[in-house]
Amino acid sequence: MALYDVFTELAGYVDFQAADAARLAEMAPMVGPAIPEIVAAFYDAIESSAGASKVFEDHHQVERLKASLERWLERFFSGVYDEEYVAARARIGMVHVGIGLDQRYMFAAMNVIRRGIDRTLVSAARQAGWPQERILAGVDAVAKLCDLELAIMLETYSLAANERFRVNERLAAIGQIAGSVAHELRNPLATIAMSTTLLSKKTLEDKSRKQADRIAAQVRYSMGVIDGLLALTRDQAPSRRLVDVEGVVRDALASIRPRTGVEVSTEIEPCLPGVSVDPVQLQQVVINLVTNAMQAISGDGRPGRVHVHAGVRDGDLVVRVDDDGPGLSSEVKARLFEPLFTTRLKGVGLGLALCRRIAERHGGGLRATNRESGGASFVVSFRAEGGI
Amino acid sequence: MTRRILIVDDNRDLAECIAELLEDEGWEVQVEDNPKRAARRAGREPFDVGLLDIHMPGMDGIELHDRLRVANPGARYVMMTAYSTDERLDILRERGILTVLPKPVPVDALMAALEGDAVAD
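YS: structure for the whole thing
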């Protein structure tokens, strides 16, 4: 069901009518001045909750989110609740999905907002000399719209969950096909390799030897492609153990072919306290993200830098890969984790989808943002315990 | 003394390639591309080393190994697989087979395995 249909159906259910919309618009001037106060109280409540505050990166992000909640509240009292309104609300919902805020916080959060509005409203309406009945009708309209907002919010979570499920299904199907093709190809390649070895053992004239060497080299290359594909598509539960993160990152970087004009730097917080993750999968994620970043820079044709930062937050391992390339366009951002989506001529477009799956298998996630200074930033988290 | 090897792989081309390579090295080679036939032949023609593919139609290399071992308990067995993560590798280890070669078979590793050197799989 389309989001707007969900909204109108529920509007009927909670009996949200044109009169309610008018009441909300009428109360806008009363609530408007108190909005920053309501927002501040809202964030105070979140910041005192360890679970909910975990999703925030830094102070700047909180400031941006506060400004966005203020706009959200202004529009709440706009009196116009059309298709465009629902679409805008859904976009905000997707931001919450994107930063990984668990949906169970939605109910509590909406409740904090509602109480904030009610308190402001009641005292302002009393001062304005509104009769009790009119105040109650206003509070009632707020309650109805809050319920509808919550419904849209939760609907975006369910849309995102369905999308994720679909992506993982698709990855699994691609993995199966790739796996069986790869195994089928290994046998003939094995024969070619062995035949070439036999050929090379014979006394060959120089030209023929050159050809034999070329065949052998191409077979090795093909095997590398197959091995890479199999490694990418393997869906295994993480095999966690205590990991030397610095060593894993170092090995990952060593296995990447350097590119001229791209400088890679690392910053690994010292003495990462016993992070337990799957070292092979962690390495795979780092290789993928750094390779992507390098390619984004090279594709832009300018020299640039990739910076890998690893640290621990609330016991979780967080690895961030920043680049100063062109950044992500909104179109690319929307399709970033779609299997087989790629902006490159070379490459199959599975890397990010698989990185995200690995992070999720560790109970964490992968997030992509554009940096304010330009370029893209990928943040992957591996939850210390409780992976699925 | 001539060393005898039995190679069983449903990929006959590969088996014959390996055979040629080993004949050059002085081995006496039997090649079989049908595991069931190989199992039936087992008692009649003795060998020192069995080189068996794991994934074969009709009977896999592990079952073939078990059958061959009854007739040839003294032989050494080396397995080959095109699957990099074979869940059956553990079964092989339980049977004391530590050498599993990947496909394409690296010639040096094959030679080392046949000479009885320890080879990491």
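YS: worth flagging: Chain A is about 65% helix and 10% strand.
IM: good catch. Also Strands of chain A lie at 241-243, 262-268, 275-277, 304-313, 316-323, 365-370, 376-382.
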